[in-house]
Amino acid sequence: MNNWDWSAVADFMPAFWDGLLVTLQVLVLGSLLSFSLGLVWAIGYRGPRWVRWPVNLFTEFIRNTPLLVQLFFFFFVLPEWGVQAPALTTGTLAIGLHYSTYTAQVYRAGIDAVPAGQWEAATALSLPASRTWFAVILPQAIRRIVPALGNYVISMLKDTPLLMAIGVLEMLQQARLASAHSFQYAEPLTVVGVAFILIAYPASLLMRALERRLVR
Amino acid sequence: MSADPTPNELIRFDNVTKRFGDNTVLDNLCFSVRTGKHVTLIGPSGSGKTTILRLLMTLVKPDEGVIRVNGGQLFPAGEKEVRQVRKNIGMVFQQFNLFPHMNVLRNVTEAPVRVLGMPKDEAAERAKGLLDLVGLSDKHDVKPTQLSGGQQQRVAIARALAMRPQVLLLDEVTSALDPELVAGVLDVLRDIARTTDITMLCVTHEMNFARDISDDVLMFDAGRVIESGSPEKIFTDPEHERTREFLGAVL
């Protein structure tokens, strides 16, 4: 490649590590949020009509509008209503919420795949609802959906650059700032691209291995 | 609404109707079962036998009628009363329905610990006793999928008994088994019928077994009891034409 400048790479590295840390932070917290909220939605889908309806409406709405719109909405509109948070917090919550509507679908499929007889056995033993969910149904459902959930984590990783739109200093934002400063675009952007591959590809291999082990 | 239950009446259906869509599975059904009796429900498939067990286990709700168990009301009733009354009832299913991710011992101890609040070691001791009873004392740590169908069904029997139910519902418990495994399960049930005072309601196609363990046999057709009596009476000298036809076809 023409004019590849290793010193530009070296100059970018401190900012890159900061950006990587932010990206990973968003990814980990966002994933945890999407796993737990998604489970809440999925249990809501099985609830009585007055629970099922609003949950369905809300998750369909979030799932069918772009994450970028939601980011702007949370960052620029909510403060007008008095709800204000730093960009990093807002971004993490938004991406976690957005992805929870996808993980909810995954949970739902996993829960639907548990045979009706398991629910019936739990009823026949008078197990309380909480025990039925957490000791009987979910352990069987989640085993099968771990790979699918993992794939959404990888998707989320690739969506984290959207957070630069509200000024979160994740990897791409750091690269953009460094480039604007030095006018050397290739090096920082290449470093960021390589970083995504280095995280995402092994992760997807791991998910495929898990799939072979857990889903039979 | 209905007459006072006679003293040792444990289960009573009054005018119970159950429909699935346009199909009336139980039609204004009335019958009762006294404490400690072993009652077998026979009849052609689709005649509503299994629905009776599923109503008692609260897996389905009737459209009309009253169901009482042990002085409490199972339908119509609030959530709390249903819970209370249902604890008296245990069920063994055609497809076993063991929890596949729990080992055999945990399958049997889960409900006593979580529902009855029994201490874990006491529940484990009792579970081991019950697994001895069903002939599986060497399988405590095994997952259900590693067992034969007959062994799984015997675990399911132990699991149901662990809740000390007054009533045990047996829903075609040998229908999913390979023929050579049927006898082992039926022997266990004969044993339980002989040595305990548990009330049994049994839906089965094993007529010899029905004859062995039953105090009463109820013959169902099209959602109604068309004939009932001792097994000797029903199997050797049935009154109803439909009963004769049915027994002629299965015996």
Detailed description of the structure:
The complex is a heterodimer of chains A (216) and B (251). Chain A contains 8 helices and no strands. Chain A is an all-alpha fold and 216 residues long. Chain A has one domain: MetI-like fold (Orthogonal Bundle). Chain B is an alpha/beta fold. Chain B is built from 9 helices and 10 strands. In chain B, helix 4 crosses helix 5 (149-161) and helix 5 packs parallel to helix 6 (179-195). Chain B is globular.
Return Rg of chain A in Å. Answer: 21 Å
Query: Which structural class is indicated by helix and strand composition of chain B?
Result: alpha/beta
* Biggest chain-to-chain interface with counts: A-B, 17 and 24 residues
Helix content of chain A: over 70%
And the CATH topology of chain A? MetI-like fold
Tell me the β content of chain B. Answer: 25-35%
Average predicted local confidence, pLDDT of chain A: 93
Task: Write a concise keyword list for the protein shown above.
heterodimer; A: 216 residues; mainly alpha; MetI-like fold; 80% helix; 0% strand; B: 251 residues; alpha/beta; 6-stranded mixed sheet; 37% helix
Indicate the topology.
The complex is a heterodimer of chains A (216) and B (251).
Chain A: H1 6-45, H2 49-63, H3 67-77, H4 87-112, H5 116-124, H6 129-159, H7 171-182, H8 186-214
Chain B: E1 9-20, E2 23-34, E3 38-42, H1 49-56, E4 64-69, E5 72-75, H2 79-86, E6 89-92, H3 104-114, H4 120-133, H5 149-161, E7 167-171, H6 179-195, E8 199-203, H7 207-213, E9 216-221, E10 224-229, H8 231-236, H9 241-250
Parallel strand pairs in B: 3-8, 3-9, 6-7, 7-8
Antiparallel strand pairs in B: 1-2, 1-4, 4-5, 9-10
